[in-house]
Amino acid sequence: MHSEVLQVGISVDSVTKRYGKATRAALDGVDLEIRPGELLAVLGPSGGGKTTLLNVLAGLEPVNSGRLRFGDEDVTDIPAERRNVAVVFQSSMLYPHLTLRQSIAFALKMQKLPAEEIRQRIDEVAGWLRIDHLLDRKPHEVSGGERQRSAVAKALVSHPALLLMDEPFSAVDAQLRRQMRTELAKLHRQFGTTTVFITHDQEEAMSIADRVAVMRDGKLVQVADPLTLYRQPASAWLADFVSVQPFNLIPIEHQDGATLSALGGSLVLTPPGGPLPQRFDLGVRPEHLRVTRSESSTSRILTREIIGGQVKYTIHTDRDDELVAVRSDDEVLDLDTPVDLAVEWAHALAFDPDSGDRLDVRFNEVVASVS
């Protein structure tokens, strides 16, 4: 951790924010504890409240009710310029007529820091972000990725108590975005600044965050570390939202003591041991649905996509339902191949068919075939 960074915890207590006469609050009684020095990703669909939360934390928007605390200090009514918060937006927000060094130094000069301290801070951050050789150039003379790294340097150089990042990598291409995510994770490990990273990209959130806070309709749905969020999502909606590939949700009913009726009888599953609800929705991620060739099956391969060393299949049932499986490329099946399916029960989830909430059902670690 950088020796001069003061790690501050952030408390959001029952915060509500409404715009005008809107019927639904942009933030609806949000309670959130951001741990000192953590990198928290705030993930959600458009309109979920992510950017409003960022604006409230930054002091750019007042709240209608609730309190905000940075450490022991109540900052609810403190203006943005006095909160010691830095924000990195989607666009780099650099001054086009200044060099990168001058842009990065601007806030420090306004604070009237000594010239030598300004130089040392800039050199340190620029070295970590690998832009030290670009400092004498202007924004239009560097690439989009280099501009964004410069914007991060501009934010970090002031040693903020809280670093807010609003989808900072959305304007760069996919390969560079993955590279910059890795750089951000390394940078956070070095500087340890309490950071809130806003994104709608589940892969981005799950890959770099210490914890992920998922928002929907102005409310927090779940806050957890990425693996817990993946393995124990609070609802079927959340399970699907954090999945990189489409999430299989299969309606299940007991047919008799030995079988489960799936998809309205289109498929029959051999159940695992243990008690099961009479009705539930079975959640199976594509990587936990096995596919094998079977001439007697009425289910067939509808589409096939090669994804690196994996193959993504869409399987069409005789009732026109579709399931998605992702398997290794050891055996690649052709289109229209009849297939049997098998569920890896150890990784399966159960959800209430009416509310969508996850049920506390523990499946035995067996593979159940689907015919």
From TrEMBL:
Its ancestry begins with:
Bacteria, Bacillati, Actinomycetota, Actinomycetes, Pseudonocardiales
Key word Nucleotidyltransferase present:
no
Q: What SUPFAM superfamilies is this protein classified in?
A: MOP-like, P-loop containing nucleoside triphosphate hydrolases
The alphabetical list of record keywords is: ATP-binding, Cell membrane, Membrane, Nucleotide-binding, Translocase, Transport
GO molecular function terms listed in the Swiss-Prot or TrEMBL record: ATP binding
| InterPro entries in the record | AAA+_ATPase, ABC_transporter-like_ATP-bd, ABC_transpr_MalK/UgpC-like, Mo/tungstate-bd_C_term_dom, P-loop_NTPase, Transp-assoc_OB_typ2
Q: What is this protein called?
A: ABC transporter ATP-binding protein
The superkingdom listed in its UniProt entry is Bacteria
Annotated ranges, domain ABC transporter: 10-242
